[in-house]
Design a protein that fits this description.
single chain; about 325 residues; Spore Coat Polysaccharide Biosynthesis Protein SpsA, Chain A; two-stranded antiparallel sheet; 13 helices; 11 strands
Length: about 325
């Protein structure tokens, strides 16, 4: 049995998946495809040693990860996005993750020019102030503000390594027993966003820490599947996942603070979006977000905004 199994979740990843597989250094690979509409499946089938799980509908990222972990007994699992290409061996990640108290380890993600993707490779766990600044657009207008600097580790040299709160799910090694202990990835974060943050937060709450190992690194293109989503879907899914994270990990006062910020930020975005697009299209999108935020604001929990199973693949392919 291999010490580590690589897990890759694909959705219309044909342009990247072969390079990702070929860089996996002879480690066993499980690919879970979420009903791609391109040639991803045909490209994966060119590699007979790769185990392919082809879903007939989009199950979401978290559910796909859980499918793959349940299909292997390796003590360590390496989660890779299909647009990530390993550039070094991962032995140092396994070594770090084997230390007492460490349940998660990750390397550095680099762009096409070799620069570390600071702000994405690792982040601190979000606070109410962090998320309020995010949804109100403060972080976009003033990216060097103190909340954003802390949240995205802009105040730290990632080349020094050490413990971090939440490495990116695009390049994440974790213990199989940790996954079993905390109940895997939460499939309510559908289809994407915040499931990796939630996983790392629950791991920390269970007494496990995460290590960043700069001697291990990989090239990351970034955002190829998200780019295929319709704008309306991207906005709605991101806000819904954010509110679910808030409802799970924040106090009632913090939940209401973020909920109020989402309501105000969505109103502003609806007005600006309508003027920029010269269309009323943003209004129903943000009205739906505001409705969900009000549920979080008054009840302290996130509402559901998930389409029926038969519509999943259709919505994701628009």
């Amino acid at each position: 049995m291999s010490q580590v199994t690589v897990i890759v979740v694909t959705y219309n990843s044909g342009a990247h998946i072969e390079r990702c597989i070929e860089r996996c250094q002879s480690m066993p690979v499980i690919v879970v495809d979420n009903a791609s509409g391109d040639d991803t499946l045909n490209r994966v089938r060119r590699y007979p040693d790769v185990r392919l799980i082809a879903n007939s509908e989009n199950m979401g990222f978290a559910a796909a990860v859980n499918q793959a972990v349940a299909a292997t007994s390796s003590p360590f699992l390496l989660l890779l996005n299909p647009d990530v290409e390993l550039e070094t061996p991962v032995d140092a990640l396994i070594e770090a993750c084997s230390r007492p108290g460490i349940g998660i380890a990750a390397g550095l993600l680099r762009d096409a020019h070799g620069n570390v993707q600071t702000g994405f490779t690792a982040r601190r766990f979000p606070t109410a102030a962090t998320l309020a600044a995010e949804v109100l657009g403060v972080n976009r207008v003033f990216p060097r503000n103190r909340w954003n600097r802390a949240y995205r580790y802009l105040d730290r040299n990632l080349l020094a390594g050490g413990e971090v709160d939440q490495p990116a799910g695009a390049f994440l090694l974790f213990r199989g027993n940790l996954w079993a202990e905390i109940g895997g990835f939460d499939e309510r974060f559908w289809p994407v966003w915040f499931e990796d943050v939630d996983f790392c937060k629950r791991a920390r709450d269970a007494g496990y820490r995460a290590a960043l190992v700069p001697s291990v690194h990989a090239k990351h293109a970034g955002g190829h599947s998200i780019a295929t989503l319709d704008w309306e879907c991207r906005e709605r899914y991101w806000y819904v996942s954010l509110l679910k994270y808030v409802s799970r990990h924040f106090t009632p006062w913090q939940r209401r603070k973020v909920g109020a910020a989402v309501v105000l930020g969505s109103f502003i975005r609806a007005v600006i979006g309508t003027l920029r697009k010269r269309s009323c299209r943003p209004i129903p999108v943000y009205a739906r977000v505001i409705r969900l935020a009000c549920v979080c604001l008054w009840s302290g929990r996130a509402g559901e905004d998930r389409p029926a199973a038969g519509k999943m693949a259709v919505n994701m392919q628009q």
